[in-house]
User: What shape does this take?
Amino acid sequence: MSLTIYGQQLDSRLLIGSALYSSPQVMKEAILASGSQVVTLSLKRQNPADNSGAKIWQYIQDIVTQTNGFLLPNTAGCKNAKEAITLARMSQEIFNTDWIKLEVIGDDYNLQPDPIELLKATEQLISEGFKVLPYCTDDLVLCQRLSDLGCEVVMPWASPIGTGKGLMNPYNLETIRLRLPNTTLILDAGIGKPSDACLAMEMGYDGVLLNSAVALADDPVVMAKAFALALQAGEFGYSGGTMPERQTAHPSTPTLDTPFWHQNEA
Amino acid sequence: MNINIAIIGAGLMGRLIALSLTRQGYKPTLIDKDDTNARNSAAYAAAGLLTPLGEAMHCEPNIVEMGMESLKLWPELLTTLNGESFFQQDGAIMVSHTQDQGDYLHFARYIKEHYPQHHVNSLNRSQLEALEPDIGRAFNQALFLPEEGQIDNRKLLIALATELEQADIQWLSNTEVVEIISNIENTQVSYKGLDVEPLNNGCVTQTFDLVIDCRGTGAKPVKNLTDNKQSTLSDLRAVRGEVFRLYAPNVNISRPIRLMHPRYQLYIAPKGDGHFAVGATEIESDDMSPMTVRSAMELLSAAYSVHAGFAEAHIEQSISQCRPAFSHNQPQIIVNNQTVHVNGLYRHGYLISPVVLAQVNELINLHHSSGSLKHSDYSHFKYSHLLPIS
Assistant: This one.
């Protein structure tokens, strides 16, 4: 039932973001309710060079400590490899971790990751010893390239960040799963409902990363619990092995009593 | 009244408490790092919106409740102040661009479900145009929240200063509090003038029966000699916000406009004679440096998208400030012997300060009737949840 990320074993398959909650306390309650042990945080807007976000970072760090988990700093808001690399180095220094959720945005309207800059930044950061968790589009070849560069974890999107549209292209996502059986795949961004997360897990994804779906819910704590359960249901659904789909109905009760002249009517 | 009271911090809360005390016949001492114009306070940077329903999706229900009650309390608080009318309650308007339609519908549903007792009117284009002719063309629909209002925060701060000066209280401006020592029966405050030469120190220590500490993000822990503990303000943090003040004489908007935005609570607050406050960003940071280009672009493009007339507006000020907040983003009144900390009003200062003031007044009455705040019971207070058991 556990998820392994760069050698670290985690009890929960949910990774959760720390933005957009109505207060730090609500964030804390929601994270604890979700059971997640990996909390992402962004630092770009908080003037990291002057450590201006120290208070909230410490608050998040304390939550993570309580869950026996890990902080996952991200490079949200970076628009090219250079910017993302600089921010990754800064976050390594501030949070004393070599984990980085690498995010390089290529389009302002749908916040779509820039695959070319992402590959550049990944290559550089891996050469510096970072453990990169790249956020990318649902493109098989891109995911393959990221894996080839040494990413043990690849995180394709379900749909654009914050849209809550769920799995927009299940075919692509299933293909990535089938073709990269040995890569840890985490579905990142676009999750709206618990059933979206469940669907990803039923496909055999190793985990789900989300933020808005919990933070913007009417009751984030209840929603966090819903996601924890949905992930578990989806995981069991996958490992239990779903039955094959069929075109025709097959009654689950024996049909011996059906008269022979009716048997062709189905 | 012979109780010797000091108020530390002359932002909004400090001034309101000082005013209330002088009206009750006390002669408090007001000590503040800033000058009497309060230019470095969060109260000066704010826009003075009184829009509890507009905030509802991003705060706990008790903030909405306190905001609604404060709307009733403001007019009485303002009655004796000289000068212009600072208070407006003609409603506020919520609009959204097509791409934020989902958030807009969520907001409308949320308010109707959670606050059915309050009025929210859906407006079509012509109804919006009837209320605010200048913005009706830009939006197909809007929500009208008729109970909401605003206050002219800067005029209010000046009027409060004028009245306090006339009341002849001791106001030590440009004065920094160096240390507060909280004893069982009284509180010792050491302070020094900021314009005093560092060489001759100039530190003065004075003893007060009661000290009310309203310093916001500037608050420091207080020494408590009785149990050798420091009062707990460790949960306090700063949340950066950025606001523009614009002069746009060609823009005719009479009510506060709130614009749905995926990250911030954006608003345009008309301040009379063509002046507008446009804000505000919300960044988990204690950074006080000037506004960033990104924030400026976000705020100004939001204003321009509501009214093209803002293209020719003059930028009078770009302001960055930090709001004091506890981790639950709610205010707290913390009693430590004869020291009372009033803090954590976050971005809701003008919205809820009359209710917070009422609770502070109850504490002062309690002090007056029993001679101290020792072993006091606050459970009968209307908003006793503001006073955590220490």
Summary: The mean pLDDT of chain B is 89.
